[in-house]
Design goal:
The structure holds two protein chains of two kinds. Chain A has a single domain, classed as Orthogonal Bundle (MetI-like fold), CATH 1.10.3720. Helices cover 77% and strands 0% of the residues of chain A. Chain A contains 14 helices and no strands. In chain A, helix 12 runs antiparallel to helix 13. By secondary structure, chain B is mostly helical. Chain B has one domain: MetI-like (MetI-like fold), CATH 1.10.3720.10. Chain B has twelve helices and no strands. In chain B, helix 4 crosses helix 7, helix 4 crosses helix 11 and helix 9 packs antiparallel against helix 11. The longest helix of chain B is centred in the middle third of the chain and has 39 residues. Chain B is globular and about 80 Å long. The N and C termini of chain B lie close together (11 Å). The chains are: A mainly alpha, B mainly alpha. The interface between A and B is large, with 43 and 53 residues.
Chain lengths: 297, 320
Amino acid sequence: MTEVTQSGIAAEEVQAPADPSPRRRTWRAFRQNPLGMGSLAVIAILAVVSAAAPLIADFPSGYGEEILVGPSATHWFGTDELGRDIFAEVIWGGRISMIIGFAASFLAILIGVTVGITASYAPKLDPLLSMLVDVSLALPVLPLMILVAALVGPSVETLVLVIALFSWPEVARIVRSQALSVTRLPYVDAARTIGGSHLWIMTRHLLPAVAPVIVVAVVLTASRAVLSEAGLSFLGLGDPNSWSWGKILYNAQRSGALTIAWWATLFPSLAILLLVVSATLVSIAYNDARNPKTREA
Amino acid sequence: MRLLSYASRRLLRGFATFLFAVTITFFLVRLLPGDPMLAIAAPGMTEELLARQIADLGLDRSLIVQYVAYLRELAQGNLGISFLRGQPVSEVLMARLPWTLLLTGSALLVTIVLGVPLGVLAAVKARGAVDRLVQMVGVIGQSLFVPSIGIFLLYTLGLWLDLFPIGSAVDPDTHGVARALSILHHLALPCLTLVMAQLASYVLTLRATLIESLGEEYCDLARVKGASERRVVWQHALRNALLPTTTLVGLQIGFLVGGAVLTETIYAYPGVGRAIFEAVGQLDYPVLQGAFVLLAATVVLANLLTDLLYGLLDPRVRTA
């Protein structure tokens, strides 16, 4: 008895340094991927700059003296049709774009994970939930978001809710398919046999098993939410009192600056591209780091 | 026989999807904060017209009765009256629908025509220079914001090089061949915008599935039997690799339609998407609601077609 315990501990002690937890192993592999780390840094910089917007530039409002001038030392990104500084608009716009992206993604993940895990665990609910997810995924989401945003009236809260409301099915689909492969494993049966409640099994056994998928879903849902916000704002459904990247493009389109001033659309476009590409690369690097096949290569 | 039951199941599913779309719009419009009258009563509407609308939709009755009435009107093609023009929404939108179908249909066609060879090229030389380039461009391509692509093309090919016209879909007073050419000329930039927006997804999916297929035993067998690599790729592997790509068409059509709304807005292309943009500006709710119902119907039909195509392509669906 003691011998077995002792040898067990000894074996663990020997193996511990060589075989760290999967989480640490993934992180170690991720750190060695320059593209992944670079993208993470870009997202961090964008987040810090957005958070520090009030320290960097005044909120762009009112009228400026120089109307539609190109990039210069005083106006790095040029000015718009009312003479407002586009650099300030991009910085302040980043705040709203990222806040909406993260908030909408958080809500969508919350709903999507709940639905996905429930569907995988409860065979009776699964057909109904799966059909709901499939059907929502088949619909053209943007026109639906437009209808709801227009009815409720544009604001930051509306955008967050509308985007979350129509983004969760994607998360639910991914989480369900991952959780489904786990619910069939013996350890879930074991947990049920020892009398574990359904909630306990779902939160303590299924949730950790799908955690890596959720990490990827958070990143991708957030970047897609940023694109959705930009799309809605571009169509004139952005929050009227704040800037966002899509709204800068909307202004350029509405005022006609779009055809005169390339800088009015280039810089917000680049900001969106930078954020979304970085998020995509982070998720790819994370998947590679998690997968032993690519990790060893 | 097998195919028939497959087709009827898909048909049922398409119908359920459409019913779901109609149902959520109905309840969203009525249960969201705000006056439900707002969704049917235009500021300039005459009393008589308003009374007819209220009677048509039964807004003075219970929600369930209203819902049934709404479905009945919808079955007769009645989508309500546009605020702006006082014209039936269905008339306003049906005049626009052909342009949107032309735009999305041509974009899908061009995407597949370009995407298949590109995906094959990347998969055949997997991990080579071309493959890495395709993957890198693919990641960026998947992250593009549709209006950004549109504005970029409008600038470079439209304004700077002056190769293509911007705005509207056809020159007025053209006939016959000249009219067809004018339509194509106006279509080029919006179509290219949508192609750029979705090409990456197709190329990357086809690449991944083709690499997988090429590693399978039946491809090895074909090689052992002396088939040229070209034949193995195009005749053996591609056939199987195209199946997931067909599924992707179904998944991407919703995105394509959303992209069309944004693209038509930039190019003032007179499709349903541009009508949506105009309706947002004027808060013309019946048009917004009708446009969603119409686009949902289009997407459901397109999905049904790809499903049937899948059934024809995949022998397992026919015989299993």
